[in-house]
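Justification of resources, computational component.

The compute hours requested in this renewal are based largely on the per-chain cost of generating structure records like the one below. Each record pairs the submitted sequence with a full structure-token output. That output is archived, and it is also reused by downstream analysis tasks.
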Amino acid sequence: MLEYVNRRNTDSMKWDGVEAMFGKSDLLPLWVADMDFRAPSCIGDALRKYIDRGVFGYYKVPESFYEAFINWEKSKHGLEVKRENIRFAPGVVTGFSMCIKMLTDPGDAVLISSPVYYPFARAIRANGCKLTESELVYDRGTYTIDFKDFEEKIVENNVKVYMLCSPHNPVGRVWTEQELETILDICRRHDVIIISDEIHHDFTFGEHRHIPLLGLASDDDEIIMLTAASKTFNLAAFQNSIAVINNPGLMKIWDDFAAGISLRGGNPLGYIAAEAAYREGGAWLDELKDQICDNYKYICSEMARFAPEVVISPLEGTYLAWLDFGSYLKADEIKDFMENKCGLAFDYGEWFGGEMSKSHIRINLATSHEVLEEALKRIESAL
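The structure output for this chain reads:
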């Protein structure tokens, strides 16, 4: 059963890091994408068993960890993962930053589909690459890819790498097989390497199903898939993520780079937690997804009542709601309104890039109904 946890004064970035991020300590946080629910009991049980041994020397990753991940991907997403193609990354953000470092030279163009998870742009700039954007087409909450613009941007900028977000954060799209095939086809034609961030892949809703990009590709396709149990089971603190690489050339580049920085693996707690989650956390995840759906429906119904012109993007995937307040507030009014008039902390649309996103906020749905109820009461009162 899901258990909400009061995370104030627990060194939580989401709750106790609000002042550092927003300059005020009294904001109700619905920003960074982590959860306010206790992790599945199987994870705590596995960790306690390890801790109780009392010996914390060098750790050999058991084959059972890889088996648990392989079985999860096969049963949940139909993806056949080979053991020899799995690599460790200390977090998905670190993973795609490593990829940019190892696959590009300063000045190379890297393409993103904005608005998109803002660490993409940060990683591109931090590695001296040229940030290139193909903005998603926005139509009253629904987003699609402009493939003509997508290909033109690749050709005009001689793009080296495309960073795919699947499912897409923040707009909540779960890409269809046809959309993914088109991305693959264009990138093949122009020798573009794809970094596929699929960390939200366990969060899809209704008839929408996540399709791993590697499941549509051949081993010749230049793709690095990044994922983790961290988003699914709220294990981000363990910094244990996975890269899956089928292309032999890319695998050698990864291995050479990892050897150069002595990256051999993570700490035992991350492996133990992830394995337990993949083996026994399925029922907990189902309950969590029901809660997220209920929270999303609640936001939609309440907004329809007191702010019907707020446009809410359909929640196909992720646990993040994407709301457009453009009918009520100018883009440069959003921050002041939410923080100073409502006392709320959100991720703002302007962080994610794209001209059409500046009137948006992103709401973290992985919290209690009571937290969302309080947030919406404040917005209603301020409006």
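The chain has a mean pLDDT of 98. The first helix runs from residue 13 to 16.
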